[in-house]
Every structure is written in C-alpha cells, then in structure tokens.
Amino acid sequence: MYILAAGINYRTAPVEIREKFTFTKDEVPDVLQKIRSMNSIMECSLVATCNRTEFYFIVDNIHCGEQNLLMFLQEYFNTDRSEFRQYLYTHANERAIIHLFKVACGLDSMVLGETQILGQVREAYDVALANNTIGTILKQLLPHAICVGKRCHTETDIGKNAVSISYAAIELAKKIFGQLNDKQVLIIGAGKMSELTAKHLNSSGVEQVYVVNRTYQRAQELAEKFNGIAVEWENIEDSLSEVDIVVSSTGATDFVIDKKIMERVMIRRKNRPIFMIDIAVPRDLDPEINEVDGVFLYDIDELEGVVEANKKLREQEVNVIDTIIEEEIDNFSTWLDTLEVIPLIKALKHKTDAIYENTMESLYNKLPDLSEREKKVIRKHTKSIINQILKQPITHAKEVAGKKYSKEQIELIAEIFGVLEEPCYKANVVKLGNRKPKSTVCSVKSEKYLASIGRL
C-alpha cells in the first residue's frame, strides 16, 4: 500500500482554476464516499480551504489512484482532465507525509505560519472519521499531523504576529488608507473568514463595521460580537453606497456582486472611490467590477504582496520546523514499521482459530454427553493453550518489526507456523524505506497528544 497526496492549491493554480474545483461542506461526505468506493483507494480524506483542495489517500497502486482521482474530478465537475491536469500535484509516501506535515504547520500556506489550517486539517480528519472513509493509517497520520502543527507553533516563533488571509486583507486596506479609524467597512458573509476579518477590523479601530448575509440572523450574531450593525440582504446596495471598504467571503457558488450592481452603486456614491477585497473561493465579486470607475477590486491572489512582508519575519523559523518535521517522520515511520507484523498476527489467529474450531467440533462429536459447563471449561482452557503458544512468537515479531532483517525473521516465524500461504499474511503495508532516525526527542510529546485524542 502507498500514501498518496493529490490536489491543487494557490501555488499550482490561479484562483479562476481553483474556484472550479471546490466542494461545499454538504458535498464533502458524499465526495469522500464516492472516491472511497473506487478501485485501488483504500482510505481517503479531503482538506478543503480557500487556497487548496487536497486529497490524502491510502492506495494499493499509485498510478491507479491518480487516474481514479482524475476520472472523478472530470466527471464531478464536468471538465475535461486536459483543462486541469497541469495544475494537479501528487506526492507519494514520504513526500506525501512531508507535504501534510508542512501543511499542518502552516509552511505551505499563503500566509506563512498561519494557524487556521491546523483546524481545517482537524476538520478533515473528523469528517473522514465520521463517514468511515479512513482506516488504520490515516487514522494515525492525520492526528499525527495535528500534533506536528501544535508542536511547531509551541516550540518556534512561526505563529508570532499571527496572520491569515483576512489579516492580510486588512493590512492591504491600511496600506492604501493609512489609518482605518475613520473608515466604514462592509463585511459580506458571516462565516469563519468573515469573523476573523471583523476581529482584525475591530482591533484596527475602524469607525463602523456592517455585516450582510443572506441569512439575517447569522449577520446579527456576527455583528453583535464586534459592536457592528447587521444589514438585510436586500439593502446591500444601500450599504455599498455608504462604506469605504468591502471585504467579501461567502460560500456562494456564483458572484454575489456584479458589474451592474456596482454601476448603480457608483452613481449613488457620485463616483467616490470604494476599496473592495474578495477573499472567497469561488470568488464573490465579478472581476468586471474593476472596469467601473472608482472601484478598486483585489482578489485573494493579489494579497500575496501584503503577505510577503510577514514571510520575512517567519522564514528564519523554517529550518527549525524542517528539523521537527524530520524527527516526526522518523516517529511515524517507526509506527508504520510495526504494521509489518500485523499480517503475521492475523494469519496466526486465522489458522489457530480454524484448528481450534475443528478440534472443538471433533471433540464434541466424540463426547456427545458433555454438559454446557464442561464444554465451556474445555473451550476456555484450549483457547488459553493456543494463546500461550502464540505469545512468545508474536512478542518477538513485534520487537523486531522495523529493525534490520525484520522481514526475514517474521517470514521465518510464518514458515515455522505454516502461514506463508495464508491470504491475510500476504497483505501489503506501507514502507517509507530505510530511514535512519535522527532523534526521538519528540516521541513523548507525540504520544501524549495522540493519546489525548484517543489514537493510542
């Protein structure tokens, strides 16, 4: 089996491509179930954010796994693979794990070191777990990635001067207007990104924040948190006519503001300039809005310039985090190595269970007058004999797993017990190759975290 990561993100695809390949929260469970049912895919999870649509798989064949994903995306989005294949990246085994760990640490985010992604990885794990699309390996790998992310933010300064896309949007507004304490801002949407935006605006001392959402109650709830004002959706043009800055982040699949709306708004504003930031994927604001005089529109990709300044303060921590990631890969590799003994244990159990049942059946036929109590005693003690016989070879197999010549020693045990041809013994396990652990200083921390969420 192999670990496979595949997807598109802001590094490989522009926003106009990314927005075509997004899933709503309601769609994700069905998407996971459909992909999980495809050939070669044993486990799957999906990390979906405004900047990435990324799958993590356990597959029995890398090429088949990649082709099945291409086929699924082509059919689901009704788009020929030739239009998106160049934007899709894949990583296998160790490279896939490194990629996931970097994602969880915020090293692969547009805003280096941001912490929002950590919650999104946790959400991906929770959703996949709830829909039973992950098994032994991803149930361990995803929580381990969360552990790595937490460790990096605890042991380094990568998270200091915390930023996010929403923070970058406010920094861009400051760059254009200077101080924001005399500005009025309209937030379109009431989700997590909108709440983060409102939080940053509040700390920047804006004069007034307005919140508009299709569900008015949600707009009220967000506005109340920051002493803002909720606006009915049908009154959005009135607000657009008054505010200085607009930040939009909804979950809509189509544009919520188009060129015609802004043409009407700018007549009412008498062409007084308005600054609009679209941090949604798919985009909320029609790019043609930029053609309207007095409208200055920025989308999520254009925030990279603002983000650059923050990167310089954080890049010095990257080398430290790379070392942490290397240590944690050693830890995960050690855990993976222990899996090579599982097929042997299953094969031994399968064979001894069959012998046990056949023996019991033969015994009962020869001694038909046994009482139920006598049968129970015989079954219990016979089972105990089998377990005691298997205890030492299984213990030894666990001890040598992952060590030099472990394969040969495990095969010797299998040959002695005659289970080499058992189907369950021939099962494949993921191997990362011959790694030489550099350190185990983080293993205790990893185990504590994994144990706290019930994975050990």
From TrEMBL:
Asked if the keyword Iron belongs to this entry, the reply reads: no
Q: Any idea where the Tetrapyrrole biosynthesis glutamyl-tRNA reductase dimerisation domain is?
A: 322-418
Swiss-Prot/TrEMBL GO biological process terms = protoporphyrinogen IX biosynthetic process from glutamate
**What EC class is this?**
oxidoreductase
Binding of substrate occurs at T49, C50, N51, R52, S109, E114, T115, Q116, Q120
Domain Quinate/shikimate 5-dehydrogenase/glutamyl-tRNA reductase: residue ranges: 171-306
Q: Which terms in the Gene Ontology molecular function aspect does this entry carry?
A: glutamyl-tRNA reductase activity; NADP binding
Please state the pathway this protein functions in, per its UniProt record: Porphyrin-containing compound metabolism; protoporphyrin-IX biosynthesis; 5-aminolevulinate from L-glutamyl-tRNA(Glu): step 1/2
Catalytic site positions:
C50
Matches recorded under InterPro entries: 4pyrrol_synth_GluRdtase, 4pyrrol_synth_GluRdtase_dimer, 4pyrrol_synth_GluRdtase_N, GluRdtase_CS, GluRdtase_dimer_dom_sf, GluRdtase_N_sf, NAD(P)-bd_dom_sf, Shikm_DH/Glu-tRNA_Rdtase
In terms of Pfam families, this protein maps to:
GlutR_dimer (PF00745), GlutR_N (PF05201), Shikimate_DH (PF01488)
| Location of the Glutamyl-tRNA reductase N-terminal domain | 7-156
NCBIfam families, alphabetized: hemA, PRK00045.1-3
What subunit structure does UniProt give? Homodimer.
| PANTHER family listed in its UniProt record | GLUTAMYL-TRNA REDUCTASE (PTHR43013:SF1)
Q: Which family does it belong to?
A: Belongs to the glutamyl-tRNA reductase family.
Q: What else is known?
A: During catalysis, the active site Cys acts as a nucleophile attacking the alpha-carbonyl group of tRNA-bound glutamate with the formation of a thioester intermediate between enzyme and glutamate, and the concomitant release of tRNA(Glu). The thioester intermediate is finally reduced by direct hydride transfer from NADPH, to form the product GSA.
Q: What is the documented function of this protein? A: Catalyzes the NADPH-dependent reduction of glutamyl-tRNA(Glu) to glutamate 1-semialdehyde (GSA).
Name of the protein described by the UniProt record: Glutamyl-tRNA reductase
| The organism of origin for this protein | Desulfuribacillus alkaliarsenatis
